[in-house]
Amino acid sequence: MSAATVHPLLKAKRRRATLRNLAFLSPWLIGFSVFFAYPLISTVYFSFMKYDGFTSPTWNGLKNWSYVFNDYPFFWPALRNTLWLVLVMVSTRVVFGLGIGLLITKIKTAPGLFRTAFYLPYLAPPVAATMAFAFLLNPGTGPVNRILGDFGLPTPGWFNDPSWSKPALTLLALWGIGDLMVIFMAALLDVPKEQYEAAELDGAGSWARFRYVTLPNISPIVMFAVVTGVIQTMQYYTQPLVAGKVASGVIGGSGQQFEPGYPEKSTLTLPQLVYNLGFQRFDTGSACVIALVLFALAMMFTALLMRRRSGFLSAED
Amino acid sequence: MSGSTKTTAVAIAAAAAISLLASACTGSSNNTATDDPNKDVTITFWHGWSAPNEVKAINANIKAFEKVHPNIHVKVQGNITDDKINQALRAGGSGAPDVVSSFTTDNVGKFCSSKAFADLTPFLKKSGIDPAKTFPKTMLEYTQFEGDRCALPLLGDAYGLYYNKDAFKAAGITSPPRTMSEFKADAIKLTKTKGDSYSQLGFMPNFHGYESTTTHLAAQWSPTYFDTSGKSNVATDPAFASMFSWHQDMVKSLGGFAKLEKYRTTFGDEWDAKNPFQTGQVAMAIDGEWRAGMAADAGVKFQVGVAPFPVPDDQADTYGKGYTTGTIIGVANTSAKKNAAWELVKYMTTDTDAVVSFANAIHNVPSTYAALKSPKLKLDAAAKTFVEIAQNPDSTTTPASINGGTYQLTLQDFGYAYEAGKQTDLAAGLKGVDTQVDKDIAQAK
To answer: Is B51 at the interface with chain A, CB within 8 A?
Structure first.
């Protein structure tokens, strides 16, 4: 029977089915449209407009794009820092989180105590945690450098030294490893014991068991940790901002201009620029350009990782 | 309708819908004032003061206003930051303030050019107030942008030299320095090294040394930030090059950037009792009039001296000047009660008794000529010095700009690079500042 001769009753039934499906999908459709599609389309739209939030937007062509890429002195340092953090901080966190997860699952004495101890820092509010780290790592008065000095070790400038500020932020991120530790711990406990027993019977050592049993089983979790880590790092805002403010000592009081990314723009990240341009300089258009760069980067990293997804598939897939 | 026509129609409809949606979320400025200020009305006033004595003083001021205007009730919201103000002014609505005050004069250019603050000229005319005869010149400068008067001064701040009298006595210095050469000599005399650091530093010249910023120090050279056409003037005006050269010499004379920077990391917070001047870590500091009260509250163990900050040797006759700034106040353009809001602004900024009592309570510089001459003004020696700095005709401020303090940030950024030795060519660096400032302004226009 051709489409033109479909019985009207069947047609109505199909329409009802479509409507029913749409009704079931509507919560997601509404959420997707309001909180993703509309903001994304608006961001693209405003990136070509001159808009200060007070007056109606006017067409600005490619001026915002040109300004951000050619004339805005903070963009390239922020992009470099963001990429550094994505590559170094994310990979270090995943390796460290997995290591701690492995360690915790092996501990037989007071495992609950250790799990709590490693998880607790994750619950600390980011501002308080960063301020505590800035105090601990203060090159002049902080206890960390005093201890390093007592052992005759070099005493870095940490948040006051552009070469050390990002490693210091990575240390802070490792301290709050609780989220990844819990995820990895759950995945590790889920690996079938029989597989380890079979591997042992085959004479596999601890590295071989990890490489050929543990890793294939937890690879989807590793993938999840990497993708979410990349996205979180793209949105990294509070910790570098607070660390820069506390270490610089300039909080932007009367007549003072707060220096973004202290020291020497080394803690500047793209989300800080979105805030600075969009909410402090009223340049919504340029802020939208940077938001789109962030979106493109997140998509690119996710696509790259997904293309390598075969390497992340679990043994069962 | 064919398939392609249908697709085109859908695309056009979608584009139109997106445009409508996007423009729907944009605010609209309402520059009319039609409300009756004699009717019973409640207005909202946002300010940034948070210290108990400041909050007490502002509340007393509001109470006095409500006594004079019993029909206008004021809902006060304190401890408001500039970022919150920016968003509230953009969002508008019933929760937005009618009257706003801010400590950052830098934002006046943004507030005026974007029409976030209402133009106060019609209100001033209606009330018969001549700004030039009412407010000091520098205060009038930082409350307007390109002729648009969208704000008024609500007390002012002046910067001067704080010095440790006991340390001066111990070093055999009898009076505060008046010129930059005297200042350098005194700073060296007051500096005591301890190992690879200091037990006392004469002066912290590094630009991160709290109030020793590029703009505060540059004021002693009376700089002109923009030329008559609005272009950045930093490379052309010799004031900036002179300031940076003097600064570099000071840094070198006191031990070098790295050593000073390491010492700086031992400083406590600027705004608490551990401020390095109050702890005796530095013997001289550039700071605002509030420091005298803060030092007294912190119970410092030495006698605090106050004087105008020294001037360049070739401008010795201008001794007494300094950097001035202050709190600004304006009426939100989104307010539907502008006439009532203006009554509050008028009272707080021009009523002599209100200005004087507020200045006395929070130790700020009064912002009207009448208040400055008022017999009710309680001035101790420190406050008198700052009032004189504020009134000095050679005192300067940082002008309002369309993108706020972005030009200051660019200059400051160069300052950090130059003091650290990362940038060595001063002339090229200052030209670079000009180029960047002009680009940023072009983007904002």
So the answer is: no
pLDDT at res. B65: 94
- At B210, is the secondary structure helix, strand, or coil? coil
Whole-number Cα distances in Å, B80 to A264, B46, B48, B84, B92 = 29, 7, 4, 6, 16
Q: In terms of CA atoms, which chain B residue is nearest residue A259?
A: B409
Torsion of CA A125, A126, A128, A131, to 10 degrees: 170
Given a contact cutoff of 8 angstroms between Cβ atoms, the answer to whether B438 and B231 are in contact is yes
Residue A187 CA neighbour count, 13 Å, CB half: 26
How far apart are alpha carbons A16 and B86 in whole angstroms? 50
Q: E strand or H helix at B133, and its extent?
A: helix B131-134
**Count of other CB atoms within 10 angstroms of residue B143:** 29
Check B266 against A253: CB less than 8 A apart.
Answer: no
Cβ separation B22–A46 shorter than 8 A: yes
Contacts of A144 in chain B (CB under 8 A): none
Least confident of A103-112, A239-248, A255-264: A255-264
Give CATH superfamily name and number for A74-312.
MetI-like (1.10.3720.10)
Q: Nearest CB to B90: which of A46, A53, A283?
A: A53
The CATH 3.40.190.10 domain(s) of chain B lie at: 41-157+324-391, 159-323+401-444
Which chain B residue has the Cα nearest residue A64? B443
User: Regarding predicted confidence, which is higher, B294 or A69?
Assistant: A69
C-alpha span between B123 and B129 (Å, rounded): 9
If 0-12 CB within 10 Å is exposed, 13-18 middle and 19+ buried, where does residue B426 land?
A: middle
**Of A38, A52, A54, which has the smallest distance from its Cβ to B21's Cβ?**
A38
Q: Which CATH number fits domain B41-157+324-391: 3.40.50.1450, 3.30.420.40, 3.40.50.720, 3.40.190.10?
A: 3.40.190.10
Give residue ranges of A with CB < 8 Å to any B CB: 38, 41-42, 45-46, 51-57, 63-64, 67, 71, 73, 138-141, 160, 248-251, 253-260, 264, 279-283, 286
Please tell me which of the candidates A41, A139, A281 has its beta carbon nearest to residue B403: A281
Measured torsion, CA atoms of residues A265, A268, A270, A274, in degrees rounded to the nearest 10: -90
Domain boundaries, chain A: 3-64, 74-312
Dihedral over alpha carbons A118, A206, A212, A177 (to 10 degrees):
10
Please judge whether A279 and B412 are an interchain contact, meaning their C-beta atoms are less than 8 angstroms apart: no
B400 touches chain A (CB under 8 A): no
Alpha carbon distance, N-terminus to C-terminus of chain B: 46
R_g (Cα) of chain A, nearest Å: 25
Tokens standing for residue B11: 């695309």
Work out the angle at residue A297's Cα, subtended by the Cα atoms of residues A293 and A299, and round it to the nearest 5 degrees. Answer: 115
Domain B159-323+401-444 homologous superfamily, CATH: Periplasmic binding protein-like II (3.40.190.10)
Which pLDDT tens digit goes with each residue over B208-235? 998 999 999 999 999 999 999 999 999 9
Q: Chain B 19-38, CB below 8 Å of chain A: which residues?
A: 19, 21-23, 25-29
Within 8 A by CB and 6+ apart from A314, the residues are A216, A217, A218, A219, A220
pLDDT in tens, A202-227: 999 999 999 999 999 999 999 999 99
Q: Which residues of B touch A138 (CB under 8 A)?
A: 265
CA distance B71 to chain A (A): 31
Q: Does B264 reach chain A within 8 Å, measured CB to CB?
A: yes
